[in-house]
Write a structure and sequence with these properties.
The chain is α/β, with parallel strands linked by helices and 720 residues long. The protein contains 26 helices and 26 strands. Strands 3-4-2-1-5-6-7-8 form an eight-stranded mixed beta sheet, with helices on both faces.
Length: 720
Amino acid sequence: MTPHDDGLYLMLISVHGLIRAEDMELGRDADTGGQIKYVVELARALAENPRVRRVDLLTRMVEDPKVSKDYAQPHEQLADKAFIIRIPCGPRRYLRKEVLWPYLDSFADNALHYLRHIGEVPDVIHSHYADGGYVGARLAGLLGVPLVHTGHSLGREKRRRLLDQGAKPETIEKNYNFTQRIEAEEFALDNAAMVIASTTQEVDKQYSIYDNYQPEHMVVIPPGVSLERFHPPRGAWFNPPIYMELTRFLREPRKPMILALSRPDERKNIATLLHAYGENSDLQDAANLVLIVGNRDDIHSMEKGPRGVLNEILLLIDRYDLYGRVAYPKHHQADDVPLLYRLAAKSSGVFINPALTEPFGLTLIEAAASGLPIVATEDGGPRDIVGYCKNGLLIDPLDTARMGQTLFGVISNRSQWRRWSKNGIQGAHRHFSWPGHVKKYLGEVDKIIKKTKRKRPSTSLKSKLPTSDRLLVTDIDNTLLGDRESLRQLLDRIRGAPERVGFGIATGRRIESAVKILKDWDVPLPDVLVTSVGTEIYYGVSMELDSGYQHHLDYRWEPEALREALQGLPGLRMQAASEQRRFKISYFMDPVKAPSLAHITGHLRQSGLHANVVFSLGMYLDLLPVRASKGSAVRYLADKWDIEVEHILVAGDSGNDEEMLNGNTLGVVVGNHSEELEILRGRDLIYFAEGQYARGILEGIEHYDFLGKIRNIHEQGEQE
């Protein structure tokens, strides 16, 4: 892969939801909302800038009869220089974001396939949300390029709000998988050269509760809006067809309209809005309430979350007897949205966003540009929007009575309404245009590119594995070694294999120790050795150190500060000096006396330090650079030597092999494995052998037909 000098190649990663160039299904479900619109418009806006050569927006490929075939197309053009690239990831069917976590390693591996196919490396990777952040951090680390991250909606803040509402911790964990989401956010923050926030409140109040809070790496760039579609009613404007749809619900359709527009998600807090409207008779007499909450055919057939929200809406309308006062149409088109804003403005109405938290507030900017005053949650983006535009009021989204009073006040004060309407139009155009967003965005990107000294893995280098199209990589202790007879049989198979089969070692041992024990067991030196828990790579008989990989790892690595941070913690004892390496700090750990792994990781993050913390065999603790692990080393090799990840068989027995076994590699867990690896049992591309030591590797070779055509078990798993 060779970078180009004739403009920037920018890669955006937004994994979940349904993304296409036209007729976006915004509000279809909880995953297809404001983030989807933002990344599509950002990609288009960036591509219009002459300094940008190409923009790729990577998202998940979906092949599901329940959704459009558009989402199964691998490639779709967004603009002259912008493209949607759909990456296979896990089962082919459409999945909500909370269950995508086991498949994100495959997304990263398949994204590398795409880059090898086009023969380029992006100048910057920009990840979105926690899942995109996980993938982006992995890719940026492997490729040695800067990572920009936008969190959109932060897990810690969402969890806090749900707990404040009285939700049970175990329930929200089950529904939203917050533990994994927050850990992915921490991982992204740990690796990001720059974090883009939409508001100062997001930086000061939401990111600040993360262990990896680094305000010096955060910039506030207000989101842009394509304002040409959003404007106030003009001249002799006639009511559009969507108006007739609303009149089906309303006895007095000419009354001012309180408009709410969101997907059917409990975090959007529509139920509290209905309580506020239902408990305020003056507000009911003064205005109608119009709820645009996605599109639906049959509520009963929807997923549990949206179904629950819509059922609650219907029950509350019935409870307060709001028939004839509330409109809640089943369907609307994307082109109806600007018309709805104008209808509300023409009626002298108000737009409300009552969400528990609102990171961006794109709908608020659209409403402002349409001349519609706003009432919005005080948490997140609305603070800055109201501050810039001076066109409305902020509310506590959980204060039902105050919400109703505020809406009535906006509807009732005509002179204030006209002033706010005018302010919103002017403020939206002054502060939230896409050209202005892109100008600041590229200025910040220039800074991080200049700061980042990168040396990318290159497939143009002469490989020491010139004929290999597949690679066997195995741990040493208790995997390759342990039984001499099965080891002899395995070595015979390797010697008799075609020239295209490479052989590698990945071990926690330092290079001197690894070479010595291989010699003691009469194992010839392999083509490549990954040593010191994935922090060093050596090639061939000369044991040439891969200096590019060393440069790749030297990112936010502060060994002295790390040692000082762990000094004095109970249950930790430094291993011998011979076990310490440039990119590895090794301890003996007593799990009974020592703090938990999560506590140690959090302690380091809160100290402003960055490390991959690895615990293995119930007694060893290693601190590595954030880009270092056996798994990262294996993928570095795949990229550098142009070997497909699906053609790499990896074998291991302990916790420090876990990442290496995940993803699209052909994983083999030997029969004598430690308990730490039991969590991997049942995954499609991880085979648990019955045979121990080298016999388990032989069993895995047969299972995958690794020396033959290689069984495509990954595709079989996807089709199930």
